[in-house]
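We modelled each protein-ligand pair independently. The example shown here corresponds to the zinc ion entry; the chain sequence is given first, followed by the ligand as SMILES.
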Amino acid sequence: MLLTVLGFYGGYPYKGIGTSGYLLQDEGKNILIDCGSGVLNELSNYIDPLQLDAVVLSHYHHDHTADLGVLQYNWQLDKENRKHDLLSIYGHSQDFVNYAQLTMEGVSQGIAYNDYEPTMIGSLKFEFLRTIHPVPAYAMRITKNDKSIVYTSDTAYFDGLVDFSKDSELLITDTNFPEDKTGKMWHMTTKQSGELAKAAGVKRLMISHLPQHIDADTMLKESQHYAGSIPTINAFTGLEVEV
Ligand SMILES: [Zn+2]
Ligand SMILES: [Zn+2]
């Protein structure tokens, strides 16, 4: 599996850098995980967006879905070159208004996932875990043979993330706050991300969903401190990780 970061800011794009989006490629399959603001533009630097096999959305906050509508227009307007008759868009069905938007006649088909059975996309197994967030959101564990990538999606810290992330090759965390942040949170701090990686015994940690106004190096240093010996990297556009 090859994962390429297409955008990594939380909340809104800033100075040419987009919000959440990751291209996952495996055996000729192109899967887009989240489709935030700026992601479609960035995706076109790597593949023709008409060559996507599937889109998987963690939740329906705009910083994870802002470019979905224009991606559907791309598929609507360039019919001849698309890889499939319909683009498969996976999302949860806990929010029927947003879920309904995934289906566009002649263009895309919404497919619901759930947290009690895995969803297979090609040879990849997707498992989902409901997170703690103001709207229904799902972390995902993507497994090929015995190797997994875990993406926390947006979430406050909770203990269930440790089991869900256990022994994964790569853990991508929602790290929107520095370690000294206090009060009610819907995202994790650098400390929580680092400690989660350590408790789950993951091979590598990638902090993402980063804040616009705190230096990435500072976020990385703090996370690495709590992750101990686990190699930690901050997400940046174009970063590729092979698992
Ligand atoms: Zn977000
Ligand atoms: Zn969110």
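The chain is about 20% helix and 30% strand.
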